[in-house]
Amino acid sequence: MTPELLDPEARRDLRGLPKDLADLVARHLVAVGELVDDEPEAALAHARYARHRASRVAIVREAAGLAAYHAGEWAEALSELRASRRMGGDGHLPVMADAERALGRPERALELSRSPEARDLSAEDAVELLIVVSGARRDLGEFDAAVVGLQVPELDASRDDPWLPRLFYAYGEALQAAGRPDDAVRAFLDAARLDVEGETDAEERAIMIGVGDPDAVETDDETGAEDAAAEDDIAEDDIAEDDIAEDEDATEDDLDDEDDVDEDEDATEDDLDDEVTDEDSPAETRG
Asked: What single string gives the DSSP state of each residue in the chain?
């Protein structure tokens, strides 16, 4: 595993480090990318080591945040992505919002969706944020609002956007939670048809729901009235925005201090360094 395997843009972010250190950190970041999907805990260990050696580099904090997210370390993911954002890096707003939701704070997820950064997201990230917001609405018991929030122009089965299967899958979940099983089945079947890679269990979800009780099938007037009411709820939603900057300030000193590192990271530092430099190591053979 060589530093040259790191994305060129990411390597440019390491230019402020001494060359030997930049190469070392780059190798660990490569390991993060190789392992994050299948071995998230191992990826997180490499990310923590890279953070220990270069905690003031935005791309390092970004990688640490994403690795922590994939490993289910929600609070750590938020801390690292906030640090990346403060340093001018990508905060991955949909990931941050989903982590807030995972921590049982759906209101915070909604706040992030209304932040200025949300207006500048790419089309794909904007859809991901819509999905997270719909889930947060369900967490709050706002089931009809969760449905309406996904009824956007992008919810079009004739398109071929890569994120469409996830959008239709989320729509199916929202419809099911709102007590509309027949509509949910149709949404899941659309998701299954669009999911040519088989990344979701949309078809299985549709089968599990089944056609449903005919009495549960709502008329167009009924569903239209519900959707209109949900739109009014969203328009009138004046949930007070909590000040999340306070949490960020509370962790800022710990995050920005290169010397304040968990003892277990120090204990594994040499092993991780050997892993990315040893040609026979498992991480290298994946590279």
From this structure: --GGGS-HHHHHHTTTS-HHHHHHHHHHHHHHHHHTTT-HHHHHHHHHHHHHH-TT-HHHHHHHHHHHHHTT-HHHHHHHHHHHHHTTS---HHHHHHHHHHTT-HHHHHHHHTSGGGGG--HHHHHHHHHHHHHHHHHTT-HHHHHHTT-STT--TT---TTHHHHHHHHHHHHHHTT-HHHHHHHHHHHHHH-TT--S-HHHHHHHH-S--GGGPPPHHHHHHHHHHHHHHHHT--PPPP-THHHHHHHHHHHH-TT---HHHHHHHHHHHHHHH-TTSHHHHH-
Task: For domain 115-240, give the CATH number.
Answer: 1.25.40
Q: Low-confidence residues of the chain, pLDDT below 50?
A: 213-226, 228-229, 233-265, 267, 279-287
> Tens of pLDDT along 119-175?
999 999 999 999 999 999 999 999 999 999 999 999 999 999 999 999 999 999 999
